[in-house]
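chain below, 280 aa
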Amino acid sequence: MRFDVITLFPELFEPFLQTGVTRRAYETGQIELKLWQLRDFAQGNYRRVDDRPFGGGPGMVMQAEPLWQCLQAIRADRASHANQATAPQTPAQTAPVVLFSPIGQRLDHAQVQHWADASSSTGAILVCGRYEGIDQRFIDTCVDTQISLGDFGLSGGEIPAIALLDAIARLQPGVLHDQDSHIQDSFNPALGGLLDCPHYTRPEVWREQHVPAVLLGGNHAEIAQWRQAQSLQITRRHRPDLLPTSNQARPSVQANAKPHAKPHAKPSAKPNANPNTPQP
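prediction:
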């Protein structure tokens, strides 16, 4: 699948493409990413892409025309590659234009899964806004979908674009060392849409805090039940909004989930300070 990014700062994406496990998605061609410098489509010696807002007010507004010209170049480039590969794209196959905006739907796992499905996804054209925003006429004319990371402000759309691309890349086959890794992530349907359970590693005792005994016993059924109970408890405490839409249990252990299993600890031990672990 292919993603095109319209941005004033393409250099922000370069480290992301060259580091971490998700770089494999780009090295193998599972995801094709093309970065488009918006100033290349602006007029004049200064390649200006913004101007003062009508009606006054602080800040600058990104002009519609450079964005329009860049979008047309992307469409032409996509059509050219489609002609070389198979048949031309039909309107139904045209990649949607995505704008990162406060009014957009908040990004969640279901959306990421939709974009990551290579069998049905044509990718997208990601527009990274800057300044006070984008001329509304471009949005009304060209934007198909708006996405938000949450109720807070950022300096531009590059960080949300990187977040979306990272989430998509890690779902591609072979990108993670263990294909089951993302299945155990928070919000995954395999977890019933719940938060993930706490995790522990060596040493068994750290600053008088013990690893829960059930994780040391080797009984995989009991471990699965403990993890399910923990996921439910953590979700109820920290994200109860997820419960009405979740299955509230992993399919494999839903019928056998047990109550919270307390860690094995000395009587004098302090409560577990792990912020992701529910306190008694």
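Confidence is low (pLDDT under 50) at residues 248-280. The chain has seven helices and nine strands.
thats it, cya
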